[in-house]
Amino acid sequence: MATRSRSAAKSRAKPAATRTAVKTEKAKAPARKAAAPEPIARRSPGKVRLTMMTGEYEIVRALKDGTVKPKGIDLVMGGFPGTEHIHGQVERGQGCDINEFNGGAYVIARQQGRDFTSLPVFLHRRFRHGFIYVNKRKALMPTDLIGKRIGSGSMGAAANYWMRAYLEDAGVPMSSVTWVIDREDGASKAARADVKIERVPKGKSTEQMLLEGEIEGMISPSINRMIDENDPRVGRLWPHYKDVETDYYRRSGFFPIMHVTTIPMEIVAKYPWVVESLTLAFEEAKQLAFQRLINPRIVPLAFYRSAWEEERALLGPDPWEYGMSERNQKNYGSLVRYVHQQLLTGPTQSLHDLFPKEAFEIKLPLPAFHKTIYGF
Fold it and tell me: What is the tens place of the pLDDT at every residue in 267-293?
């Protein structure tokens, strides 16, 4: 009988960075008469001071080191607490003003009334068919997992929604599976009562249980030691996962979005122009990363250039596209739908519920700031 723990210990971790109040460099104006409404600041009267917390990505480097400066904004970098902790910190309201955040957890947080919205900036994407693992004695094909136990660190990693959808498409109904998790998160607490969730026994982990055959499969947002070190007891559900992912892209057009970039609603309400300013700054930083990374001399991989050419031939010139393009709307809209289908009750949120109107008003395609410098 599946069990579910609804109690969670209070976190003792101190935040690596905190949100700041909206500030400007210009001195305060004289007090207005009480009857006069405060106008919306459509243009920056000075520089709005905002803090930011994201992963250590090449596509963000130029924004973090100050090479790129968003127009009208004094951007202050907060500390990065690591991949495993950033999402929990944001979920608890202990992040910065601008935060990279789990795209599935964001849907749940917004349904629960959190007062932030999202920029049309998607910093993390990844194909996920290669992150579904099985005990080789227990399962060799997707249908071997019907009615079985599948482990994961938590229910709510963004990758997990995509992988559960892949399993469903392969004939493994989510409702047939018991999901064994290492820890509770916002997703497991928000899940419908009919979702079968168990916590691992005390002193064990889902990785250990998979190795010992106590569970048949596992979905993970990260590469595990057992996979990296080729433990003979476990393997990928789809050993030739790159071929499966390539076929998936050709059928769907999705390079799956994992994370969004949040910003408080109060900041967008007061300074609507920050949505475009920040989006363009993230775009310029990404273009500078591409300008640097196109050069195979800087990467110690023998076939790096051929991999670059192969990827661009399949995914196009900008696989990490920002903005509310039709392709991005379908892509992230699928993740939103999976969150609701797999865990939540109530109507599915629309993208217009999840992004400010200013995100849809940004002219596409985004401008080209930097061209390729040849000679490598």
Answer: 999 999 999 999 999 999 999 999 999
